[in-house]
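Dear colleague,

Thank you for sharing your sequence with our group. We've completed the structure prediction you requested, and as agreed, I am returning the results in plain text so they can be pasted directly into your records. Please verify that the sequence below matches your submission; if there's any discrepancy, let me know and we will rerun it promptly.
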Amino acid sequence: MNTESNNPLQPGTMSNSLIQALIDNYRQNHLSAINTALGIQDAHSIWFDLPKLKNFIAKIEEEAAKVNPATSDEDLGIRFYYATYPKQENWSIMDSHPVPVEYAGKHTLVMIPTVKKASETGELVDFDFNPFHTVEGKSLALNAHKAKGKGEDPDTGLGENSGTLIPPAPPMGTSY
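Please find the predicted structure tokens below.
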């Protein structure tokens, strides 16, 4: 087995040297540029507990099945968007999603469900999926701001981002 590269035939395994190289690339280039340009010490990682991730996956499966019972596990996925918390002076937008104010201006991830669906050209594509918005009983695999659900709050979406940012949390326990 080649220990210097990720083996696509064994999902979920990577060599430690590849993991370290990828993380070092980020820290030496992107993180360094962000910290310098913004004058902050941005987060370099985010931690999610396993129950939160499992619950999010179960919620995706549950809501997708409500919209279309024929949806299979192979049709579903999660897209990870890079995101940034608002600046401290705009922190009030976080009122409905409380996280520590120490996260102001730092990187985060937002996880959004996807569903595999044929595009207009017939190609199978993983579309962002908001199971809370439907039109004529069909699921919308569209951006939430385009959804026009019947009787649904147009601002409701299925997403997750409440993890622990490092920093400001101490890096104890991290290996990379």
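Summary note from our side: The chain has two domains: 11-40, 43-166.

Kind regards,
the structure core
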